[in-house]
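One-letter codes give the sequence; the integers encode the fold. A sample entry reads:
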Amino acid sequence: MPKRITAYSNSTVKRLRSLRDKKARREEGLFLAEGLRIIAEARDSGCLPEIIAFSADGAKHPLAADIIAATEAAGGEAIETTPDILSKMSGKDNPQLLLAAFRQPETLLQAIDRSTAPLWIVAQALRDPGNLGTILRTGDAVGAGGLILVDDSADPFSVETVRASMGAVFTQAIATARWDEFIAWLRAGPGQLVGTSLKATADYLEADYHAPCFLLIGNEQQGLPEAYEQACDLLVKIPMAGRADSLNAAVAAAVMAFQVKASWRV
């Protein structure tokens, strides 16, 4: 039976609210997801929350009621609270009717099985959580195996990233690594490393991509370091017809990912 919480000082309220902070997420090993759509995507991917908080109206939806019941049956905590307290926990003036805390998955590079998908996305020093979440969503859309974050990147489990991913944070494997660790791991097995560069001469529409393909996307402002470009098996360029000299990192990832998949169609 769900607990009823109406006090801002409640320990569970404080705990969920703290998960908006990266340090607390690391210490707890949990992250927040908001809204029925994303939480349902998690359930469909085999992930149930450890804690789910909801308003009375939020529990009225049959799908929400099913997820709340499944969470309790699995030993999780379900709490009914007020919209004001949901707002306090989410940090939004107009909060979703459901908010949940999920256990963070393992992010070790060694946990990645490259044989499970023909395409993987690798992002280097990506700083914007919206871009990161959008790239996860793109990976899901093209059937990529997951996202490997190289060097210092935005937190893939921040509220902003999870929201932008539209549930893809639950469908895509996620790993983090330093560049030297990643390149050693990559070269220990099959894999074509493909980078984008303004200095490249090969057109992205005419290049020959091989599975498993690891699509390397550079930092939003600086692009790929020269040493990283030199380590690529293939460098391609997305031609710009207008005054802009490059695309947003998330847009470039989407353009490249769909082209790689399109090039494999028989």
